[in-house]
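Per reviewer request, we include the raw input and output of the structure prediction for the construct analysed in the revised manuscript.
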Amino acid sequence: MTRALLLLRLGLCLALALGAAPAVAAQLKPLAPRPAAALDLPLVDGGRANLADLRGRVVLVNFWATWCPPCREEMPSMERLAQRLANRPFTILAPNAGETPDQVRAFLAQQPLSFAIPMDANSERMKAWRVFVLPTSFLVDKQGRIRYGLTGSIEWDEPAAVAIVESLLAE
């Protein structure tokens, strides 16, 4: 193998590795406020989650799947954010896209999470929210409007991300 080809392959591997790393909060983009689509789904362990019932709270909606490495990577930071804001009007809904409850429970056995995991078994809600890539996240304000969006993973408990959530909580 020529040195140029070897360097090209190493560069490609490095680019792929860097692209798989969690995004910085700067990639959490402000959006023109628009009403969030309906999100009323069964929870992985019973009950239901309905976004409409969460008016008055800031909600992080994170579409994900257990087979998605970036999705799995950002879950611990989401859990830390949930714990940090536990006594505030903040909720995380993490709809799982297209998997079975057993698949999600197996993941949760390895990575316990305190926030709600709705089951979007047929990915119908994912489509209604115009999600085409996992993970995709939205921050919904207290009035039920989507205010920020992100395609890809992020460290949700880094200061810049927390500041964005705090700004929505202060409104």
